[in-house]
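thought: fold this chain, then report.
action: predict
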Amino acid sequence: SEMCIRDRASAKKKSAEIQQRLKESEITEKEIDSKRENYRAIAKRASLLFFCLMDVSQVDPMYQYSLRWFKDVFYLAIKQSKQADLPEERVTHVNNEFTHLLYENVCRGLFEKHKLLFSFLLTTKILFGDEKIDPAEWRYFLAGPSGDVQIPEQTQPYSWIPEKEWSDKYRQLCGMDTLARMKGIKERFMSSPEEFRKMYD
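observation:
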C-alpha cells in the first residue's frame, strides 16, 4: 500500500542519515585522537614531574605535595605559557613553563642543602623521560664497576697515579670499557696515558 511505501522511504532516508552521522562521528573521533596525540608529551612530562615530587619525600618526610596542589600548578602553567599555532611549539611552551613553575614553587619549601639534590633529581627524571640517559651508563654512574677484575701483576706504570690508587683506577677503566660509548677507553688509556693526565690533575 501507499502508506507502506512511504514508511519504507522514510526508513531508508533515516538509515542514510544515520550512516552519514556515523561517518562524520568517525572522522571527528579520528581528529580528536590525532589532536590528543599531539599533546601526549605534556601528560608524559607531568607524570614524570609528579613522581619526582613523590621521590622528594624520601629525602625528608616533611616534603609532602598533594595531587590537588600539583594540578593547580599545572593549570597555572597552561594559562601562563606562551601560545603557539603549531602543537609542537605549544607542547614545548607548556612543558617549559610547568617545569619552571614547579621547580620555583618546590624550591621555596626546601632546605638550602636539598635544592641541588632536587635539581639533579628533576633533571635526571626529564632526561630519562626523553630517553637521553643510557640505563647501563646510569647504573655505572650510581654503582661503579661490578664483578671481579684481574689487576695486572706489573706495578703501577704511571708515576702521576699513586700506587695505592692504581688498582681502583684500573677497575674503573675496565668497567667503563663495558659501556657502548666508552668502548676502547682502557686500551686508549694504556697506550696513551698522557692524554688523560690533564683530566686526572
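thought: worth noting. DSSP finds nine helices and no strands in the chain.
final: C-alpha cells above.
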